[in-house]
Amino acid sequence: MKYIIRDAERGDMPEVLGLVHELALFENEPESVQVTLDELTEAGFGATPLYHCFVAEVDQKVVGLALTYARYSTWCGPVIHLEDLIVTQSMRGTGIGSALLERVVRYGKDKGVRRIAWEVLDWNEPAIKFYESKGAKVMRDWDVVQLNEEGMGSF
After folding, report:
1. Cα 32 from chain centre
2. Which pTM value belongs to this model?
3. For residues 2 and 37, is the Cβ–Cβ distance under 8 A?
4. Type and span of the H or E element at 107
5. Would residue 51 show up in a list of annotated catalytic residues for this protein?
6. How confident is the model over 75-102, as pLDDT tens digits?
7. Residues 67, 73, 75, 76, CA torsion sign
8. What is the rounded CA–CA span in Å between residue 145 and residue 132?
9. Contact at 8 Å (CB) between 85 and 79?
C-alpha cells in the first residue's frame, strides 16, 4: 500500500476532526470532543497557529494524523508535545503510525527540541508496546493532571 505523510492543510480539517471523533469513540469518550471544525481550523491555520499537524494520506483520503505543539520545559528547554497520533482502524498495522511518528521526530530534530512528550492511556497496551518499540520511555509513575473549564471556574 502506498501512503503519503505531509503537512496538513486547511482543507484536511474535516477529515482530521473525523479522526479525532474516531479516537474519542475508541477511548470510550465520544461526547468529550468539544472543538468545532471552525475552532480547529482557526487554531491551526489562523494568524497565530497553535499547532502543527501532519497527515497520512492514502488514495487522496486522510487516514491518520499527528498533531503537535511547542512547549517549554524548565528542566530541558524547548520540547514538542504530541497531542494525538491517530490512524484510522482499518489502516492500523500498515506502517502509517510508524511513518507519522518518524515525521514528528524529524520535525522535532529540525526544531532543535530536546524532548518529544505525549500521553497514552494505561489500558492501551498495543499503543504502549508500539511506543516502547520505537525507544520511547513510558513513565508509569507519573499521573496526568488537568484543570478543565468547570474546574477553572470554581478555582
Report:
1. 16
2. 0.94
3. no
4. helix 96-111
5. no
6. 999 999 999 999 999 999 999 999 999 9
7. positive
8. 23
9. no
